Give the backbone structure.
Amino acid sequence: MNEKASTYLKLRLVLFASLLVLSERPLLSNDNINRSLSREQATEDLSIYFELIDKQHGNPYQFISRSAFLDALNTTIDNLPEQIEFKAFEVTLSKLNNLIRCGHTIINLDANLIKSASEANHFFPLPIALIKEQVYVDFEDSTIPHGAQLMAINGQEIGEVINELLLLTVTDGFSQAKPLRELETKFGYYFFLKYGAYNSFEVTYLTPKGIQTKTTISGVAGNQMLANNYYRPVYKTNERYYHFTHLDAIDSLQTLVLTLNTFQANPDWFAERLSALYDQESKKFEFDNLVIDLRNNEGGDRRLLTLLYQFVAGEHLVDPSNTSIRSNQIQFEDYLLGINGAVGSKEAIEKAETYLNQHFTYANEEGFESAEQNWYDTFDAGINWQGQTFNGQVYVLTSGKTFSAAADLARILAELDHVILVGEETGGAHIGRTANMLLNYDLPNTHTMVQIPVIYEEFVNANKQNEGRGTFPDFHITQTYPDLLAKKDSAFEFTLDLIQQKQLQGAN
């Protein structure tokens, strides 16, 4: 692995460390995780979880009614055994959390248990590709060949495995792509959560030539499992997948490719790099086409979004939303760990409450509304694009992992005449979502961390026909099996073909 890839991988592991969990099975030598919860303890944690959702979440009943969610909670409690193993409780809570269909409402296990899990060689090692309801190996360093179709793992039929694991994913509305990509890139984690830790895995598969084979493969450590899932899918060989943000040119197509794998990026750096490709004297760009790849971007800092919009649209971003909260107080302080990543100190709580009371001043039956609609004024980077608007053709690549602020950018750019979306339905709700201020709570018996988003935004200009779904592309292109075998990126190659066809038409 080269130095750039290594640096990128370390950063990714930091971001996704919270995904790692420990098993209660004897395979892991951690007595803390081997314990069981009493029915009373599990009931208390489930009840507190409901209170957090019911009183602090910005819009918990966008996709399920309160009565239906409360019924699901009560049914879950009624079905608890007298003793429930720790990991079984996490599966139960994840299924309940899935019903809210909010991608910013997240369940993570006790952080003190992460290190032991990351060191244990008990995770399924292979990245997978989900293509037309089939599961394929997207990996080369294994006795199971790249492109093999998985049929069973440890005797569990793979179709049943996928159906069970999808119930544990973090979803957003009814996007059909987000749960699949969530599972695809975290398969080893979800398999562990549902089925436990194993030293080895008995795998039944079909080779690319259709020969059914059975073999045993060894488990890997949690960090290696994450590295495989995020870094090792075969088509991700280009340097642009190793960085948070990357610019590279395809000179033969007069095309600039901007890969944004996150919005946790520096707007100053981005502005400088773009300026280097713009001639102030002639007021011309060094490229005619721009490809913005958002397929692995799960959001972050909106300041980069506002700068990008200026560059592509030539004007200040106005994206009005009706915005509300259910409570202008930070509640359940005894369980609060942090706010937006900061420690939940008294000072942080006061600052958060001051912000809520400043912006949400109109009381209604559900909580409080804000008179402010264009929230992007709040995310002004203080950096403005000084050159000409880029009026060439813009292609935006999307997938089910295009989420939060990245899904916002795809939705907003899709309204421009010179922008074409290619790929999948985004993983972020098109009409509205609950996000922004994020509170992290600790459940007292399991020390499960629950992330609760506080502010709900309903986008005024969004197409209401997409209610509950993500933003749809102009060209729906997902990875094909022939391209998987050929190690090609289907959506990216399709986009390059579009650019080439346009050039040929222009030449004629």
